[in-house]
Each structure stands twice: as structure tokens, then as C-alpha cells.
Write a structure and sequence with these properties.
CATH topology of the largest domain: Fumarase C, Chain A, domain 2
Strand order of the largest sheet: 1-2
CATH architecture of the largest domain: Up-down Bundle
Order of helices and strands: HHHHHHEEHEHEHHEHHEHHHHHH
Structural class: mainly alpha
Distance between the termini: 63 Å
CATH superfamily of the largest domain: Fumarase/aspartase (Central domain)
CATH class of the largest domain: Mainly Alpha
Helix content: 55-70%
Oligomer: single chain
Largest sheet: 2 strands, antiparallel
Number of helices: 18
Shape: elongated
Length: 456
């Protein structure tokens, strides 16, 4: 081994040789350096305020921590794999820089509460970033809906044309899904806003520390009320991963529709060249690869959730090294979700819409339900109206005649059109132009209240 372990006192000179590489986490937890330094600075200030360190000692430690942060920012920090993780690398470097006083920083804390605090800080920061990207995607959806608020398309069930809807109405369905996704992440943040620092290994500390102070210093609403709970659970990460997995399911569904709509068979939209690729053998191809990858990466984030659930499900209290596996799953989910939100928003912001293609697909048999509703409004029981219209559909298919034309002959005075169909769906949440315009304005107001910038 090239360095001295923090736990070396109990062990002989050959201790850990076979396990060193296997147990090290520096390769992935080094991204926590900002969180680790922030928590260490708050801890040092608290130790000084409580008289456990002198003010001079605390300032010396904090100055050293700032220097370490600058070294890492500049890419000049001497990372040593022998120090296992980011926490011990920072501590070892601190002692190199400021001398033995650097070793006093670890008073009244453990790596157990240290890493839990770092992960709370990390997920709090990244959850805010994810919510900002959700807002961007919602804004793209609402702007697209506003620009094409009068475009009619077929709605689908079972991937079969069902009834006419406004294209804006379809887009706004995803706005609302994303709104719930955002709400789930906000809920996660409320429960993640507790500070584990000062819980130590599992039982607290005999030192007269002020956990309320460190919680305030780090922007937490309160410290954990139970030291065992503080270091033993990762439910705050599980909750975020659960919200992230649901979010990715929604992104996958949106991506699937953009893939379908951009095919020659649909022709409803065309994605920008910036979000497509070509074929190495077929010159004519324009493949929606970015959307296919969004669809595929949903499985990756779902896997991250399952990974951590499986890690945690059988662990006794308190800390176990199994919990080291929380980081790679969480980091991967965060990176994947952020990348997918960005590419989905970019694809929508640059997408070309083909209204005529949509309108043409919203004619014919998709108006069958409107005819049944018209008959029911005249007092015919709906089941009978359904059967009569179904028989008319069958006759049209057999004779090869347009549905609207045959409906006019069979039911004189009845005129069917996609525009009349959507206009009639006036119920709250329906697809009528008036209802959708109100829905767009509510969404725009909601985004503006959160600082979003919708197009005029």
C-alpha cells in the first residue's frame, strides 16, 4: 500500500492488501469533493463555536480546505488511490498542508455521517438542476402547443386512430406528467432536507457539539433526530431514484411518439438534423437516434433504482459497506436524466410540425364516435347508436366509400368534421379549442411564476 490507512492502528502491516482495489471508491466518489469540503468547513466552524477547536485552528483548517478545493478545481490535486475515497484524500491533503491540526477536523464525526451528509448535499443540488431541466422541457411543450393550438390530429388508443384531438392537447398531457414528476422531486427534497452531520458512526458523540448549527450552516431545515437513522438509510436517494425512474418512463413515451410521428407512415413531424443521424449504408436515412436513446436509457435509470433497492433491502443497522453502492447508481441516474431532459427539450424546440398531415389523418372513421354521440343526444340509447354506427362503418369498408359521405346519406342533416368534433369536447380537461387555450394559459402562468420564459 502506498498510503497509511485511517484505520491502520488495529491492523498489521499486510492488512488490506488484497481488498484495497476492491473496496476503494475514489474513482467515482471524487465528484463529491465540493460537498465534502462544504460539510467539513461547516463542521470546523461548529467545533470552534463549541470550544472543541480554537478559532485559530478552525481558520487554519478552513483555509486549507479552500486551497484543496482550488487544487481540485484546477485539476492539480494529488489524488492517491491508497486513501480509498474522496474523504480520506481530502483529509490526508489537509494534514499535508496545515500539519497535525488538520487531523482535528475529524473530531465528533465519522465517515459514516460524513458521506451521508455529502450525499444529502449532492442530491439536493442535483434535484434542483433536474427540476430546472424539467421546467425547460415543459416550456418547450407549452410553446409548441401555443404555436400550433389550432392543429387537429387523431388521438389514439391501442395505437389505432380513435378520435380527433388538438395537437396542443396531446402535448399538454406530457406537460402535466412532467408537473407531477417535478412534484415528486420536490417532495423528495423536503424529506432529504435533514442533516446527518454529527451523528458520527452510529451513536452520536460525547463532545458538546451543536448539530443545529451545522444544519443551518449547510442550509438544512433540521438535523436528523436519530443518529442510527441518519447513517443507516438511503431512502432519500431511493425516493429520488423512484421519481427519476417515473420521469424517464414519461420521457420514453414522449420519445416513442416523436419516433412514430417522424416516420414516413405518419409524417406528422420532422426532427431537426441536429437530433438525428444517418445510415452507414442507406443514403436516404434520417434516424431519430436521440429519441431512441432516450427511450432506451429509461431502462438504465429503472435499473439504478432496482440496484439500490436490492442493496438496501436486507441490511441491518447501522452502516454497512454495501451502502457504498449507492453512489454509482445515483450518479448514473442523475447524469442520464439530465442528459435526456436536455436532448428532449432541444428536439421539441427545433422540431418542424406538419399540420396538414395531422389534419388529413383526423378524418374518416375517427368521427364515428361523434356520430354515435349525435344519435344519443337525440334520445337513442347509446348502445343502440353504437351498433348502428358500427354497422355503417362496416358498410363503408365493404363498399369503399368515405365515412362522412355515407353518414350524411344514412342520417340526413348530420355533418361531421374534425373541427366540429374537437369543438364539441367542452368538458373540463377536454380537447375543445376554448378548453385547450385556457389550459395553455394556466400552464404559461405556472411556468412564469417559477421563472420560466414562454415564447410570446
Amino acid at each position: 500500500m502506498t498510503g497509511k490507512k485511517a484505520w491502520r492502528g488495529r491492523f498489521g502491516p499486510d492488512a488490506g492488501r488484497g481488498a484495497e482495489d476492491f473496496t476503494a471508491s475514489l474513482s467515482f466518489d471524487r465528484r463529491l469533493y465540493q460537498e465534502d469540503i462544504a460539510a467539513s468547513e461547516a463542521h470546523a466552524r461548529m467545533l470552534a463555536a463549541c470550544g472543541i477547536l480554537s478559532q485559530e485552528e478552525a481558520e487554519t483548517i478552513i483555509t486549507g480546505l479552500h486551497r484543496i478545493r482550488d487544487e481540485i478545481d484546477r485539476g492539480e490535486f494529488p489524488f492517491d488511490p491508497a486513501h480509498e475515497d474522496i474523504h480520506m484524500n481530502i483529509e490526508a491533503r489537509l494534514i499535508d498542508l496545515v500539519g497535525p491540526v488538520g487531523g482535528k477536523l475529524h473530531t465528533a464525526r465519522s465517515r459514516n455521517d460524513q458521506v451521508a451528509t455529502d450525499m444529502h448535499l449532492y442530491i439536493r443540488k442535483e434535484a434542483q438542476a433536474v427540476m430546472g431541466l424539467i421546467q425547460r422541457l415543459q416550456t418547450a411543450l407549452v410553446n409548441l402547443a401555443h404555436r400550433h393550438r389550432d392543429v387537429i390530429m387523431p388521438g389514439y388508443t391501442h395505437l389505432q386512430r380513435a378520435q380527433p384531438v388538438l395537437f396542443a392537447h396531446h402535448l399538454l398531457a406530457y406537460y402535466h406528467m412532467l408537473e407531477r414528476d417535478r412534484g415528486r422531486i420536490e417532495d423528495c427534497l423536503r424529506r432529504a432536507n435533514e442533516c446527518p452531520l454529527g451523528s458520527c458512526a452510529l451513536a452520536g458523540t460525547p463532545f458538546p457539539i451543536d448539530r443545529e448549527m451545522t444544519a443551518r450552516e449547510l442550509g438544512f431545515s433540521r438535523p436528523y433526530a436519530n443518529s442510527l437513522d441518519a447513517v443507516s438509510d438511503r431512502d432519500f436517494l431511493l425516493e429520488f431514484l423512484s421519481a427519476a425512474a417515473i420521469l424517464m418512463v414519461h420521457l420514453s413515451r414522449l420519445a416513442e411518439e416523436l419516433i412514430l410521428w417522424s416516420t414516413s407512415e405518419f409524417g406528422f413531424v420532422e426532427l431537426s438534423d441536429a437530433y438525428c443521424t444517418g445510415s452507414s449504408i442507406m443514403p436516404q436515412k434520417k434516424n431519430p437516434d436521440t429519441m431512441e436513446l432516450v427511450r432506451g436509457k429509461a431502462g438504465r435509470v429503472i435499473g439504478d433504482l432496482v440496484t439500490l433497492l436490492t442493496v438496501m433491502k436486507g441490511l441491518p443497522l447501522a452502516y454497512n459497506s454495501d451502502m457504498q453502492e449507492d453512489k454509482e447508481a445515483t450518479f448514473d441516474a442523475v447524469d442520464t436524466v439530465k442528459a435526456c431532459l436536455e436532448v428532449a427539450a432541444g428536439a421539441l424546440e427545433t422540431m418542424e410540425v406538419h399540420p396538414n398531415k395531422m389534419r388529413a389523418a383526423a378524418e374518416g372513421f375517427v368521427l364515428a364516435t361523434d356520430l354515435a354521440d349525435r344519435l344519443a343526444a337525440k334520445g337513442i340509447p347509446f348502445r343502440e347508436a353504437h351498433a348502428r354506427v358500427g354497422a355503417l362503418v362496416r358498410r363503408c369498408l365493404q363498399d369503399g366509400v368515405p365515412f362522412e359521405e355515407e353518414a350524411g346519406r344514412a342520417f340526413p342533416g348530420v355533418e361531421l368534421s374534425p373541427a366540429a368534433s374537437v369543438a364539441s369536447r367542452r368538458s373540463y380537461g377536454g380537447t375543445s379549442p376554448a378548453a385547450v387555450r385556457e389550459e395553455i394559459e394556466r400552464a404559461r402562468a405556472n411556468l412564469a411564476a417559477r421563472g420560466g420564459k414562454a415564447a410570446p
